[in-house]
């Protein structure tokens, strides 16, 4: 099936398609590398903070645009894994880049799954007016965000969790840009705004800084 994650509350079941997991991993792969090079560049000695941070050459060398293109294509149909893209490793060496990429993937997946758990927990119904469906989506988002941020403290653990929620929401932006919003889900930008209100991040938030790099590179690369 095409990339998707969904719940069937009456069956108390949650479904993940292979294409959904593949598209999210491709985004996680891109997210890790974009955030790594952008944050390193910002902190490089002598970097002019008034200039444009150009990571295009780096992204091209890693074929990050091809990962995003594949992620986008999976919203339309499941497809074989391209030969020119790296494949996920099940048990990478701890502290390796592959291990970090998997952590980004699993962190974003956690928010998406908790969103679906909320639909099951709340026994949400599918055949209701669109306005109620939209309300159900906002409540499921809030459930997932609160679960992840509760007891996260104020340090790097919280910043990482903020960033993982941002990666998950970036996946929703990709979904919306490929398939449109429809009448049963809020606009992705509004969902991001609602989640951000729970972040309680300061002006020097590393999570939001890196989320900014990701959103720009994936959604507005020019």
Question: What's the total count of β strands?
Answer: 2
Tell me the helix content. 55-70%
Strands ordered across the widest β-sheet: 1-2
Can you count the helices? 8
Shape: globular
Mean pLDDT across every amino acid position: 93
Strand content: under 5%
The low-confidence runs, each spanning 5 or more residues with pLDDT under 50, are none
- Rg, Cα atoms, Å: 18 Å
The biggest beta sheet, please? 2 strands, antiparallel
Structural class: mainly alpha
Distance between the termini: 32 Å
H/E series: EEHHHHHHHH
Can you characterise this structure?
- Helix content is about 60%, strand content about 5%.
- With about 220 residues, the protein is mainly alpha-helical.
- It has a two-stranded antiparallel ribbon.
- A hairpin with a 4-residue loop joins strand 1 and strand 2 (about 15).
- The longest helix is centred in the first third of the chain and has 25 residues, at about 20-40.
- It starts with a strand and ends with a helix.
- The mean pLDDT is about 95.
